[in-house]
Amino acid sequence: MNLRSQKRLASEIFGSGRGRVRIDPDRLEDVDIAITRDEVRRLAHEGAIQLVQKKGVSRGRSRAVRMQKKKGRRKGAGTRRGSSGARSPKKTLWIRKIRALRRRLIELRDKKELPPHAYRRLYLMAKGGAFRNVSHLEQYLETHSLRIR
């Protein structure tokens, strides 16, 4: 039994290649009788002729890798491409740090915990890169007893 023309019609109806058309082995006689597009369309509707799903690339492995990266793994020297300055630009780090420091200084000044002259001096020190982070700034305030309580 030659079902080449039925397969061709079905592939045109589905809008896919002939290789993806699957004919049910139990309904071969029905498909053999079908010679018009309408008959093939009816058989497709009944399920005698089906379209095989396309094989895609599995996302499972990529999901697993993403989960590992979220946990902070897979970041060793063998994975890295580009210098540390390229991966997290120094300017971005500086902006993040200086904004945090200035925010904290403004907070202290507005709460009157820092006298204006101390605020100005610390502001300029922060600008000059004297503090690593906010906790370092706090530590400096404690050691030099600049905070008013």
Jot down its keywords.
149 residues; mainly alpha; 50s Ribosomal Protein L19e, Chain O, domain 1; Non-ribosomal Peptide Synthetase Peptidyl Carrier Protein, Chain A; two-stranded antiparallel ribbon
- Shape category: rod-shaped
Low-confidence stretches: none
What percent of the residues sit in helical stretches (DSSP H or I)?
55-70%
Number of helices: 8
- Radius of gyration, Cα only, in angstroms? 35 Å
Number of domain units: 2
Q: What's the main sheet like?
A: 2 strands, antiparallel
DSSP summary, beta strand count: 2
Helix/strand/pairing category: mainly alpha
**Strand line-up across the major sheet:** 1-2
Mean pLDDT: 96
Percentage beta strand: under 5%
CATH architecture of the largest domain: Orthogonal Bundle
The CATH class of the largest domain turns out to be: Mainly Alpha
CATH topology value of the largest domain:
Non-ribosomal Peptide Synthetase Peptidyl Carrier Protein, Chain A
Please characterize this protein's 3D structure.
- The chain is mainly α.
- The chain has 2 domains: 4-51, 50s Ribosomal Protein L19e, Chain O, domain 1; 86-143, Non-ribosomal Peptide Synthetase Peptidyl Carrier Protein, Chain A (Orthogonal Bundle), CATH 1.10.1200.60.
- Helices cover 57% and strands 4% of the residues.
- It is built from 8 helices and 2 strands.
- The protein has helices at residues 4-14, 28-33, 37-46, 60-70, 84-87, 90-110, 116-127, 134-143; strands at 21-23, 49-51.
- Helix 1 packs across helix 3 (37-46) and helix 6 (90-110) runs antiparallel to helix 7 (116-127).
